[in-house]
Structures are given as structure tokens and as C-alpha cells.
Design brief:
Aldehyde Dehydrogenase, Chain A, domain 1, alpha/beta, 7-stranded mixed β-sheet, 15 helices, 2 domains, globular
């Protein structure tokens, strides 16, 4: 047990309804000041075996409950999340360094919404029914089995609930493996699941290093679903392991998303939103990191963009005045800085920022780069930090070509004063989600996922529930029953 931001947090795994310690631990340090938050149990193959075994044993009875009875547990869990927002936000703020105000006011409460939304959707499922060839037919959802959920270090609590909620609502049991850089809020989720009365083995949390315990989890033949958010490189390894056991696999893998601004747009609104892409130090997969602006309004847009970027405040994530937090880890700071240094060396123009803000800290200045060409590394590869590129286009065709010129396809943002253009360009941009004149407005029933190396499969609404289910067609000969 560790005291983190005034909150007692277990540092052990949660398996089969009880805490399980490992002989070996790993350090978890705060991005805010480098202080040691906890020594966390480091899972291994034996830990993975115990967790999957618990999930497999618990699965038949959990699946047999049915959606309405499972929903009672999930709504109870949602109520407990709402009652503990302050505690969870305090822990996640020092563990991951996301802004405390964002966590407290928006992000953690989204976890409760996830559980309620999927409880309602699963309970409301209407089996497709029709008659054909003298038979009466129905499509039946069957819970798939134990599911492994692997989540990233950014917004770990919310993203864990986003994946675990549909799996549990569909009747799967779950083993959650949080990222080793920010594991603590997921430990609190395990406490709340226990308080909500989820039966032992239905929900499990295993901590540790991906190459060790994560690899063991995804390769276990008892696992029937795998859901992952992270990098394409890790997804390829997980996909290979899942394929060996013919296990369906969904992955959300980040993006290099365009933010397209046409001359007829509200330029101040577009520039303000562009400067907002630095929020959370750019550690948001959906951020519009490639600014594509119509050439005729280049200078007017840039003037407004710099004005709004100047309003940002780098500082302690617990301070309400702060708008840009530190990066998650020294290794990630080196990753971000390396991109910018290579861009400089290649001849790209660093217009603003491009430096560590405070020596010895993990803050990186909001950075804007004019790339020498669209083929530049800084344009084509995801940085996942406060680094944006700026390019211009002459017309709609060129804007769409630039938007679709990377291997990624997670999201896109379009600013225009024309509804017809918003529809036309929105349809032409190859991405899983495109916003027009807005950003990050989410409907939990909508499909979410990426195209290209941004992902595989879809989460959200019935798409997630179908993924966590095996669909069966039941045919009964008409007149064969009374």
C-alpha cells in the first residue's frame, strides 16, 4: 500500500477478488517532480496464468447472469466512480500529470458514463428476427469468454473503463493490464469493482512490464478477446500472439491527424482550437497535429494562432492556472525532443518552441514547425507531444491530398463556413472520426477506431458489444414448436 496524493493505493495485483503481491517490483515516479510514488508489484507469467485462470473460472456464471443482471453491478460501479472522482483525479494527476481540473471536471466522470452507457446498451439489445425458407430466425449474442485489456499511460482510468465496460456488459470476464508508467488509478478501479460486488475473477488487474506479463496474457489460449491501445509496433506483436490462437483483436494506435482550415472559416475559432492541440502536452491520440491552412489566409491564421498559443501556461498540473503539463516520462521527453532535433538537422524550420522548458523537468515548450516537404519525418510520423506542423494548400483537392498523405487515419478536423464543404471534405478525409467546426465531442454509441496504421476494428456502442460477443443465428422450422 502506498499513500499517493493523500489517497491509499494498493500496489499489488488484483486477482480473483483479492490482492496478490509479486516478489519483484518496479518504480512508479511522478512526472511532476520525479518523486517516487510507489514500488509496484511486477507481474510475470505466473501472475498472468493466475489472472486468466480466475477469469476463465468466473466466466460461466457471469455470462449466465444476462445483460439486465450484469447491468446492476455496472451501474453500482458507475455510482462509486462518481462518489470517488476527487480521489481518483488526485492520484492520476500525480501519476500521469494530466491537468487536475480536466480530470476532476471531465475525464474521470467519463468512466462512470462508460459503465452506464454499456449497461444500458447491452440490456436494450434487440435480437434481429425474421422469417425465411420456412424458418423463424434470430441473431443471438453469446458472451465470448475471458478478455485481456491493455491500456496506455495517457488518461489510464478513463480509457480502461472505455474498454472494460463493454466487455463486462457483454458477459466477458476481464484481465486489465495498465501501462507501467501510470498504473495507480487502475488499482483504484479494482477497489471500486470489489466494493460494487463484482464476483471474484470477473474483473482482474495485473501490473507489470509489457514484454513480461503483457506478452504472457495475450498469448494464453484461454483468452478469447484482446483489446489494446498503444503503438503500432506493440500492436503487431500482440496481433501475432492473438492470431496464433485465432483470437479476435482490436487496436487503437494513435494518429497524425490533420486540422484543415479553409479561408471561409471562423479563423479565430480555428486558431484557438489549433492552439488547444497543445493541451495535455499533445499526449492525446486524437490531436490535430498537422495544421493545413488555405494559403490565402496564412498570415491571418498564424497571427491568431500565436496569440492563442501565447496564453498557455506551463506548470504544475495541480495548479488551476496551468494549461500545459509535463510529459509522462524522461524517455518520452527524449523521444519528443529527438523528433524536433532531427527536424532541425533536416532543414525544417522550428518557428516557435523546440526546447525543454525547465532544466531537469519534463516540460517541453509548445512547438510549431514549418516542414521542408510533406515527406519530412516530422509530418509523417507521430510525435505524441506538443509539436505541430504547419503547411498551406491552394484548393480543396490539395487539402484532401495532404490530409490523406500519411499512413495514419485516426481523426481529422475541418474548419469551414460551408456546410456543403464540411460534408464533402469530411467524407473525403480517410479517418475513423472527422469533426467539422468542433473537436472531441463524443457520442458513446458511435464507432471509434482508426484506418491504416491507426488501428484495427471499432470500439463504441454496439460495435464494441458485438466485438465482445460471438454472434449466433438460431433457426427454428416454422410450425415445429407449439
Amino acid at each position: 500500500m502506498a499513500l499517493v496524493a493523500g489517497v491509499d493505493v494498493s500496489t499489488d495485483h488484483y486477482v480473483n477478488g483479492r490482492r496478490l503481491a509479486s516478489a519483484v517490483t518496479f518504480e512508479d515516479r511522478s512526472p511532476l517532480d520525479g518523486s517516487l510514488l510507489a514500488n509496484v508489484s511486477r507481474g510475470d507469467a505466473a501472475t498472468a496464468d493466475a489472472a486468466i485462470g480466475a477469469a476463465a473460472t468466473a466466466f460461466p456464471s457471469w455470462a449466465a447472469l444476462g445483460p439486465a443482471d450484469r447491468a446492476v453491478y455496472l451501474r453500482r460501479l458507475a455510482d462509486l466512480i462518481d462518489a470517488n472522482v476527487e480521489r481518483i483525479a488526485a492520484v492520476e494527476c500525480v501519476d500521469m500529470a494530466m491537468l487536475h481540473e480536466s480530470l476532476r471536471l471531465r475525464v474521470i466522470a467519463r468512466g462512470a458514463r462508460n459503465f452506464r452507457a454499456y449497461a444500458d446498451l447491452a440490456a436494450a439489445y434487440v435480437e434481429r428476427a425474421w422469417e425465411s425458407n420456412g424458418t423463424r430466425n434470430r441473431v443471438v449474442r453469446m458472451p465470448a469468454g475471458p478478455a485481456v485489456v491493455i491500456t496506455p499511460w495517457n488518461a489510464p482510468f478513463m480509457l480502461s473503463t472505455w474498454k472494460c465496460a463493454p466487455a463486462l456488459a457483454a458477459g466477458c470476464t476481464v484481465v486489465l493490464k495498465p501501462a507501467e508508467w501510470s498504473p495507480l488509478s487502475c488499482s483504484l478501479l479494482a477497489d471500486l469493482a470489489e466494493e460494487a460486488g463484482l464476483p471474484p475473477g470477473v474483473f482482474n488487474v495485473v501490473q507489470g512490464i509489457g514484454e513480461e506479463v503483457g506478452a504472457a496474457l495475450v498469448s494464453d489460449p484461454r483468452v478469447r478477446r484482446v483489446s489494446f491501445t498503444g503503438s503500432p509496433a506493440t500492436a503487431r506483436q500482440i496481433g501475432v500472439a492473438a492470431a496464433r490462437n485465432l483470437v479476435p483483436f482490436t487496436a487503437e494506435l494513435g494518429g497524425k491527424n490533420p486540422l484543415i482550415v479553409f479561408a471561409d472559416a471562423d479563423l479565430d475559432a480555428a486558431a484557438r482550437k489549433a492552439a488547444g492541440q497543445y493541451d495535455d502536452s499533445g499526449q492525446v491520440c486524437l490531436s490535430g497535429t498537422r495544421l493545413l491552412v488555405e494559403a490565402s489566409v496564412r498570415e491571418r491564421f498564424l497571427e491568431r494562432f500565436h496569440h492563442h498559443t501565447d496564453q498557455h501556461v506551463l506548470g504544475d498540473s495541480r495548479d488551476p492556472e496551468t494549461t500545459i503539463s509535463p510529459l509522462i516520462h524522461p524517455d518520452h521527453l527524449a523521444h519528443v525532443a529527438g523528433f524536433v532535433e532531427r527536424a532541425r538537422a533536416a532543414g525544417d524550420e522550428v518557428v516557435r518552441g523546440g526546447r525543454v522548458w525547465r532544466e531537469g523537468g519534463l516540460w517541453y515548450e509548445p512547438t510549431l514547425i514549418f516542414p521542408r516537404s510533406n515527406d519530412a519525418e516530422i509530418v509523417q510520423n507521430e510525435v505524441f507531444g506538443p509539436v505541430l506542423t504547419f503547411q498551406t494548400f491552394r484548393d480543396e483537392t490539395e487539402a484532401i491530398d495532404l490530409a490523406n498523405s500519411t499512413r495514419y487515419g485516426l481523426s481529422g478536423i475541418v474548419y469551414t463556413g460551408s456546410e456543403e464543404r464540411a460534408n464533402r471534405v469530411g467524407r473525403a478525409v480517410r479517418a475513423g472520426t472527422v469533426w467539422a467546426n468542433c473537436f472531441l465531442i463524443r457520442d458513446l454509441t458511435a464507432p471509434f477506431g482508426g484506418i491504416g496504421i491507426s488501428g484495427l476494428g471499432r470500439e463504441g456502442g454496439d460495435y464494441a458489444l458485438d466485438f465482445c460477443s460471438d454472434l449466433k443465428t438460431l433457426q427454428i422450422l416454422d410450425g415445429s414448436t407449439t
